[in-house]
Specification:
Blueprint: H1 11-25, H2 40-45, H3 57-84, H4 90-103
């Protein structure tokens, strides 16, 4: 059956983690032209608007924690989904859960 107990919504958890990761990776980088919504004069006056915001270090650290927790939550949701759907028995559930958490 391969899961389905949660209507496969557990995959959204990884999407959120990916989005936060992207936010962190693009900090300080120049925005592509299609994301610049201001005219040339405005950008000359406020050149920082050409670049993605750099979050304070403390915020970045918390965002990294969020990514880790979300990745763990995704593993838990997937493994519980398969368990409750009857795809995994007790032993497989515990074995796969441990292996996937260790792989993070």
């Amino acid at each position: 059956m391969s899961g389905g107990r949660f209507d496969y919504t557990q995959y959204h958890i990884n999407t959120i983690a990916d989005s936060i990761e992207s936010e962190l990776e693009r900090q300080g980088k120049e925005k592509p032209k299609d994301e610049l919504y201001f005219d040339k004069e405005y950008l000359e006056k406020y050149p920082e608007e050409k670049y993605y915001y750099i979050h304070p270090l403390e915020v970045q650290n918390e965002m990294r924690k969020a990514i880790k927790i979300l990745r763990q939550a995704s593993v838990y949701a997937q493994r519980v989904d398969w368990y409750l759907s009857g795809d995994d028995g007790d032993e497989n559930f515990l074995k796969r859960l441990k292996a996937e958490l260790n792989a993070l």
